[in-house]
Amino acid sequence: MSPRDYLLYACVIFGWSTSWLPLKGQVGFVAPEVSVLWRFIIAAALCFLIARLQGLKLAFPARLHLRFAALGLMLFSTNFTLFYYASPHLASGLLAVVFSTASLLNILILACLSRSAPPPRQLLASVIGLGGIVLIFLPELRLSAAALPALSLCVAGTLFFCAGNLVSASLQKQHVPVMSANSWGMVYGCGVLSLYALVLGNPFIIDGGSAYLTGLVWLAVFSSVVAFACYLTLVGRIGAGRAGYATVIFPVFALLISTVFEGYSWTVLSAAGIGLVLAGNLLMLRSR
Fold first, then answer.
1. Three-state SS for 209?
2. For residues 36 and 194, what is the distance between their CA atoms, to the nearest angstrom?
3. C-alpha distances in angstroms, 161 versus 71, 73, 99, 116, 253?
4. Would you say residue 131 has pLDDT above 90?
5. How confident is the model at residue 54 (pLDDT cuts 50, 70, 90)?
6. From CA 137, how far away is CA 147, in angstroms rounded?
């Protein structure tokens, strides 16, 4: 890889691993879905600006807008809202570990949709990785009754993310630029988030504290736009397989951040579980 590739890789890992701690600071005074709404209003505006500056197509027929709406529902609203609701009950590093199993869950979803068994190596990777999740959360379940519901929310959020990836892939097959699709997807996601807030009766307020606003800008600009753009650039330069190793690395850094700033306590079970999750992701990437 070239020096530029290493720089892109570093940006992706840094952006993804540092997003989980500020995410926890977005919940409290402001309802989770409202915090996610502010995040994607900013991110959508930036994506439209980037798409316009790059001269990308932004006008599409109504049939594609239905897919943009599905993308917004799955990838830019519901999945994040579920993680935000889970965040008060789990260490930020554990949120990252669950999210990193997306590549494992993708295989199971595709197998269900195609009604055919996945290749043995990919099935083994999924079993290893998901078994690691069980080991990681055994100590958490013993310490907190809220850990299991929070884990369920994270798994559901990851499944929504996986479904959103399928929608995104279908749009790319129709030659819709990723940045254009994401721009519209975020707009529809903001609509979904607004609906969630209205149904739940949560006010559209914002926390004026510096910690909240700094975290919001970081999540919207760097984690949602810059890091993702770097990742897509990396995919184009070195391929999806090699770029995908970021999913193996960023949970480790997220857990280290959680250990330093949140006092996450490592146990033999959690260490073994994290090792299995990373091994499952690594095996999955090498089997592609």
1. coil
2. 10
3. 9, 10, 9, 22, 21
4. no
5. very high
6. 8
Q: Tokens in use for 139?
A: 């100590």
Distance CA 275, CA 281 (A): 10
What number is the average pLDDT over the span 49-62?
A: 95
Q: pLDDT band for position 7 (50/70/90)?
A: confident
Say what the pTM is.
0.88
45 class by beta-carbon count within 10 Å (0-12 exposed, 13-18 middle, 19+ buried)? middle
- 212-265 tens-digit pLDDT: 999 999 999 998 888 878 887 776 677 655 666 677 778 888 888 988 988 888
Q: Which amino acid is at 238?
A: I
166 token code pair: 């399928």
Q: Distances in Å between the alpha carbon of 217 and those of 142, 225, 227?
A: 36, 11, 13
Residue 60 near residue 176 (C-beta atoms within 8 A): yes
pLDDT tens digits for range 138-188: 877 776 778 889 999 999 999 998 888 888 888 888 989 889 999 999 999
Q: What is the Cα Rg of the chain in Å?
A: 18
Cβ(89)–Cβ(137) under 8 Å? no
User: In this structure, what are the phi and psi dihedrals at residue 284, rounded to the nearest 5 degrees?
Assistant: -65, -45
Helices (H), the chain: 3-17, 20-24, 32-53, 62-73, 79-86, 92-99, 102-114, 120-143, 147-173, 178-200, 210-217, 227-238, 240-243, 246-262, 268-286
